[in-house]
Design goal:
The protein has 285 residues and is of the alpha/beta class. Helix content is 44%, strand content 9%. It is built from 13 helices and seven strands. Strand 5, helix 11 and strand 6 form a beta-alpha-beta unit. It binds fe (ii) ion. The site of fe (ii) ion has 8 residues, from helix 6 and helix 9. Fe (ii) ion binds next to helix 6 and helix 9.
Length: 285
C-alpha cells in the first residue's frame, strides 16, 4: 500500500536494495510476535465467514497462515503457480512510483514488521498483518490478480501524466475499501476492511456510511478519509466489472476531470446508483 505520511516512517530502510526490497528474515520474529499474529488472525477469522467475499475465503483456506507469521518464500510457491504473482519483502510504505512498478510486474510488496500488542486494533502504517492477511488471499484470484497488475501499470502512467491522485482514489476505493454485491448483501474484498476488526462489520452492517454502485469516473473524483472509517463504500457487481473498468486508456478521463473540484467523501450525487444512503458521518476509526 502506498500513502501520504506526515511522520517519520516506521520501518528500517537502511538495508534495502534499490527497488526497496529486503530479506524477510523470518527467523528474527519472536515467539511473542507469532502469538500476536495468531491473535490477530483468530479475531479476523471470527468475522470473515460473515463479512468477507467468497473469493477471499476460498483463497485464505488454501494458504495455511493460522499458526505463525507466514514465510513469504513458502507462500510464493503456491502464489506463483496460481496467478504468477510473487511477494517481495519491504521495510514499509514505498514511494508511489516504486510501489506501482512492483505491481506492474506482478510483485506485491509486503511490510516485514508486525505491530505492537498495544496497536492490536489500530495502526497508523500498514504492517505485515494488513499487507498479508488483507491483500495476499485476493492475489490468488485470477481476475483480481490481473486487476492489481492493471493498477500498477495505470499508476506508472498516471504518474507520468500528473494524475496519480485520481488513480490513487481508484486504488483506495477498490483494493483497500471495496465491497462486492452478493445475494446475501454486500461483502468485503478490500484489504483495509478485511484486516480491520472494526471496519469489517461497519462497512457491511452499519447504517451510517453510503454504499454506492461502482463508477470509475465518480471514484476518481471522490476524496477519501485516511484516519476514520470510510463515509462511502463503492460496491462492484463482480470482479470482471472491476477489471473491465481498467481496460480503457485513462488519459482522456484525466483530461476531463482535471481541474474539477473533487466530491466530498460523504457526497451522494443524483447520478449515483445508491444501494444505501448513509445515516451519519463516519466516526473515528
Ligand atoms: Fe493495503
Amino acid at each position: 500500500m502506498t500513502g501520504e505520511t506526515d511522520h517519520a516512517l516506521r520501518g528500517d530502510y537502511s538495508r534495502m536494495r534499490p527497488d526497496y526490497t529486503v530479506d524477510q528474515d523470518w527467523d528474527a520474529y519472536t515467539p511473542e510476535q507469532h502469538e500476536l499474529w495468531r491473535r490477530l488472525y483468530r479475531r479476523q477469522m471470527s468475522l470473515v465467514p460473515r463479512y468477507a467475499c467468497r473469493e477471499f475465503q476460498e483463497s485464505l483456506a488454501a494458504i495455511d497462515i493460522a499458526g505463525a507469521i507466514p514465510r513469504f518464500e513458502l507462500v510464493n510457491r503456491k502464489l506463483g503457480s496460481a496467478t504468477h504473482w510473487q511477494l517481495v519483502a519491504v521495510p514499509g510504505l514505498l514511494p508511489d512510483l516504486m510501489f506501482f512498478e512492483h505491481l506492474a510486474n506482478r510483485r506485491f510488496p509486503v511490510t516485514v514488521w508486525i505491530r505492537e500488542p498495544a496497536e492490536f486494533d489500530y495502526i497508523v502504517e500498514p504492517d505485515i498483518f494488513h499487507d498479508f492477511f488483507g491483500h495476499v488471499p485476493m492475489l490468488f484470484n485470477p481476475v483480481f490478480a490481473d486487476y492489481m497488475q492493471a493498477c500498477g501499470r495505470g499508476g506508472l502512467k498516471a504518474q507520468a501524466l500528473g494524475a496519480i491522485e485520481m488513480l490513487s482514489r481508484l486504488y483506495w476505493y477498490s483494493v483497500e475499501f471495496g465491497l462486492i454485491e452478493t445475494p446475501q448483501g454486500p461483502r468485503a474484498y478490500g484489504a483495509g476492511i478485511l484486516s480491520s476488526g472494526g471496519e469489517i462489520t461497519y462497512s457491511v452492517d452499519s447504517p451510517d456510511p453510503n454504499r454506492i454502485g461502482f463508477d470509475l469516473l465518480r471514484i476518481m473524483q471522490t476524496r477519501y478519509k485516511i484516519d476514520t472509517f470510510q463515509e462511502t463504500y463503492f460496491v462492484i457487481r463482480d470482479f470482471g466489472e472491476l477489471f473491465e473498468a481498467t481496460a480503457p486508456d485513462f488519459t482522456p478521463y484525466y483530461e476531463q476531470l482535471r481541474g474539477r473540484e473533487p466530491h466530498a467523501a460523504s457526497a451522494v450525487l443524483a447520478t449515483d446508483r445508491v444501494l444505501h444512503r448513509g445515516a451519519h458521518p463516519a466516526r473515528a476509526a
